[in-house]
Fold these 4 entries.
Entry 1:
Amino acid sequence: MQAYIDDVLYCDHICKKAVPELLYYSAVKENKGTVIVKTVNVEAKEKELFMTFSENESEKWSKVHIFAMEGFLPDDRNSLDSPCKVVPKEKIEVINGNGYQYILPGNSFTVFRFEK
């Protein structure tokens, strides 16, 4: 990018092309002790996710609630004719050990709520 004022070059800058991340994630620990992990897989292919817990943390988690938005086309919308076309899938899994493994489907948004 170049910027001129009165035919004088004031700025000459090379703009880098934006490269999006292929997996976005964040985690937060609530006051109640619950841990919430949010993930977004922007690729069309699935990704393997493995979360590990420290020694003292692994004893705390007994189950994980999973809320997944997956399997929809990008243009899918709820409507009066089809009010449940885009809804999260919810399931609960038991945690054993100090880690948790999950396959993130392509083009998905998944929230994990780890509870005692």
Entry 2:
Amino acid sequence: MVALVLLLQNVIAYNGHRVTIYGRNKDDINKIRESRVNEKYLPGAILHDKLRFTSNVRTAVGKRDIIIFAIPAQQFGSFLRRIRSILIKMLSLLI
């Protein structure tokens, strides 16, 4: 699943859209940012140079037109609770 989402994000960036990938582990995100490769989920594939990477959830979801969640089901609820205030602010701007 993660590999499929990475491929999707890569294609979206290739087509000129701004894509920010969030990851919880700052060291892993920094390594991917520097190498442009996610060896764990997509070994050997070079990720688009326009992809952005962050371990800061506010940076990842704030002021975005579209958010794609690729989170294991058992972690989805706790993640949504973590970003609840950010999402509420985003949704209130749409109303």
Entry 3:
Amino acid sequence: MLTNKKYSSILEVMYIYNNPKPTLADAWEVLQLEDKTLNIIEVTELKDLNPGEYFKLKPESKKVYIKGEYLRKEKRFSCTDFEDINKERFLKPTTVIWTQFEF
């Protein structure tokens, strides 16, 4: 369980609690601590996002991705980089993402 200490990012929380992979519940706890340095409005999983919507993998990340189609063989979603459409990543549906940000 998290304390009332204010954290600068989800990565700091995962480092402190020795959790290498952040979960959606951990991300919500960080946002509920009312940290003013995070300008992220919503944290969700990739499977809840509509195709064509923008997202970030980390709150402080500069890279913005666009959700693509689901590939049944890979059991992952195809996601392309906003700035370079030749870069493509395949992410699990349960990947924690950050949406509704300004860039």
Entry 4:
Amino acid sequence: MNKLIFGNAAHIAANKAKVEPTNPMLVHHGKAEGFFSCGECTHLMRRQRKRMVYKCLKRVSEAADHRLGYDACGLFEMKGGR
């Protein structure tokens, strides 16, 4: 039987899921055509708190942080109107 040691780097690496987070907006609006990220979208808003946080103006929950690297959803609009 394996002895479980918390904090052991090998244990953490073996048990940590390597799942990339996905944009929750993709469920409702699908993926944008092309290879765009949320960081290029006009709907992404930056807020300075204790740390920099990003919010999508199209998400229902104001409390949910958003990531720049998420794949853009179907509501994507390029910053600057391009």
